[in-house]
Amino acid sequence: MRDTSPTSNSTATPAKISKRLKPSSARCTTPESVTVRSTIRSTATRSAATTASSARSVRSATATRATTASALNGSGGSPAIWSARLTVSTTPSAPKNTTGSNTVSAVIDVAGFEDDSITNGPGLRFVLFVQGCPHHCKGCHNPETWAFGEGCKYSVEEIHTRIRRNPLLRGVTFSGGEPFSQAAELARLGRLVKADGYELAVYTGFTFEELYAASSPAVHELLEQTDVLVDGRFELLKRNLLLRFRGSSNQRVLDVPASLRAGTAVEMPFGRWRTEGR
C-alpha cells in the first residue's frame, strides 16, 4: 500500500516506519509490552520442551499465512467473493486470550509506532503500524509488515496510554500492515481515542465497498469508529508524488461517517481531511 520512492514533499506519501519493533529486540520485553511471540534459535543447549513449543509457533504462523493466501485466491470481484476473502483475512493471526467464546483479545500485533508524525494526516498525529497484511502490493513502503504474527504484542490499554502522553496530538492514524486484519482489537482502541477527542484515520488496502459488504461485525465496528479512510491497494503504475497523504491515484480519502450514512463512498472535497483548517 506504500510507495517506496523518496520525495521531498512530506505530505505526498505516508511515512515509512522509523520506529520498527523487532521481536528479538529489548523493546518487546520491556514492562510496557505483553507476551511476545518467541523466535526460533538453533542452539545445542536449547531444551526439548522449548524446541517443541517454538516448532508449534512456527506451524501456527505457517498455517495462518496459508489461510491468508487461500483467502486471496480466486477470480472475480463480486461483493460475495470479497466478503468471504475479507472475513478470512480479518481473523487475527495471534492466538486470542479469551475467557469465553465471545471474549475478544485486547492484544494488538504491532510493527512499529510514530509518536509524532506529520506525514500520515494533517497536524501532529500518533501512528500505529500493525503487523500483518494480505495485500502484498508491489512497491509497498513497509513490506516488513506483511508477515502475520511476527510483531510485538501490546495491549489496547498500553497503546492508549502511550497516545495520551503527548498533549499536542491532533489525531491518531492506524496504518500497517493491514489494520482491518485486526479489526476487533483496533475498534476497541478506536473507541478509546475517539472518546478522548482525537480524529481517527485508517489506511487500508481494501476499498470502502469491500469493507461495507463484509460479513465481519468487527470490520463494521472499526468503520464506525473511523473518521477518515484512505482506501485501496497501492498501485505502482498509478503512483503520484503530488497526492496528499496517499501514494497512488486509485486511492481515495473518504469521509467515513458520510459514507456510512449514504451507503456509498463519499470522498473528501479536494481530498481534504475533516480536521484541516481548524
From TrEMBL:
UniProt-listed CDD domains: Radical_SAM (cd01335)
Cofactor (UniProt): [4Fe-4S] cluster
Domain of life: Bacteria
Reactions this protein catalyses: glycyl-[protein] + reduced [flavodoxin] + S-adenosyl-L-methionine = glycin-2-yl radical-[protein] + semiquinone [flavodoxin] + 5'-deoxyadenosine + L-methionine + H(+)
UniProt-listed InterPro entries: Aldolase_TIM, NrdG, Organic_radical-activating, Radical_activat_CS, rSAM, rSAM_sf
Keyword S-adenosyl-L-methionine: yes
A GO term, aspect molecular function: [formate-C-acetyltransferase]-activating enzyme activity
Biased composition (Low complexity): 1-15, 33-61
Keyword terms, alphabetized: 4Fe-4S, Iron, Iron-sulfur, Metal-binding, Oxidoreductase, S-adenosyl-L-methionine
Record PANTHER family: ANAEROBIC RIBONUCLEOSIDE-TRIPHOSPHATE REDUCTASE-ACTIVATING PROTEIN (PTHR30352:SF2), PYRUVATE FORMATE-LYASE-ACTIVATING ENZYME (PTHR30352)
UniProt family annotation: Belongs to the organic radical-activating enzymes family.
This protein's name: Anaerobic ribonucleoside-triphosphate reductase-activating protein
Organism of origin: Victivallis vadensis
